[in-house]
Design a protein that fits this description.
Elements: H1 7-15, H2 17-25, H3 30-39, H4 48-56, H5 60-72, E1 84-86, H6 87-94, H7 98-106, E2 122-124, E3 128-130, E4 136-138, H8 139-147, H9 158-175, H10 180-185, H11 192-213
Antiparallel strand pairs: 1-2, 3-4
Helix pairs in contact: 2-5, 3-4, 4-5, 6-7, 9-11
Length: 215
């Protein structure tokens, strides 16, 4: 999960970048700190090889300004291209609710993606999604599978599966004033839509019981 850096913060940092670089250079522990930072950087970071060589040569005073410049001007090169999708579109591709997509974003399961207040989150197809078993899968691969003739939705964890079922059940209950079973069973004749809704309610209720029984 990444920490949000606003444009205003970045501009302010750029104003004091030289001062910050000198502060690090003058610290006795700066070489160790820089090594730790560099070892955990994106390998695609601009000028990284040059920065590493400078640090190995103990030219920290030269390496630090270059490191700062590269960090400021860095972007995720693998995300600079590719299609971008809304959370509602991803919900369709993943065959889950939009609520679950947003929950995964909050949990950091779309690597490098975070939600900003009052903004609609969009996700590049090259972003990696962390499955319930820990596997990392590119969003693009999920979409390609969805568009294929042989699509198997990503396997959900028990928690995610229960959340999905409860979302469906709550939606059906709300549609029938909070009690779908009684409201539909009291009717002498059901429409096709009502029969379909009752069948869905029965199906999801059964799935929920089975999940609860598996504890």
């Amino acid at each position: 999960m990444r920490i949000v850096v606003t444009e205003e913060e970045l501009i302010e940092f750029q104003r004091h970048a030289e001062e910050f670089a000198k502060m690090i250079e003058n610290s006795d522990i700066s070489p160790t700190f820089i090594k730790l930072v560099v070892n955990n950087l994106n390998p695609n970071l601009k000028n990284l090889d040059r920065i590493v060589e400078l640090i190995k040569s103990k030219a920290v005073s030269i390496a630090v300004p270059q490191l700062i410049e590269s960090l400021i001007n860095s972007d995720d090169s693998h995300l600079s291209e590719g299609l971008v999708y809304t959370t509602s579109e991803l919900a369709q591709f993943f065959q889950v609710s939009q609520t679950t997509i947003n929950k995964w974003i909050n949990q950091g399961r779309f690597i490098g993606i975070f939600r900003e207040p009052n903004k609609h989150t969009k996700i590049n197809e090259n972003v990696e999604w962390v499955a319930s078993n820990g596997a990392k899968i590119k969003v693009k691969e999920i979409i390609e599978q969805y568009l294929s003739n042989e699509y198997n939705p990503p396997e959900l964890s028990k928690e995610d599966a229960m959340d999905e079922i409860l979302i469906e059940l709550n939606a059906l209950e709300q549609k029938y004033d909070g009690n779908i079973k009684e409201n539909l069973l009291l009717k002498e004749e059901l429409t096709f839509e009502q029969e379909s809704d009752y069948g869905a309610w029965f199906h999801f209720s059964k799935m929920l019981k089975e999940l609860n029984a598996s504890d």
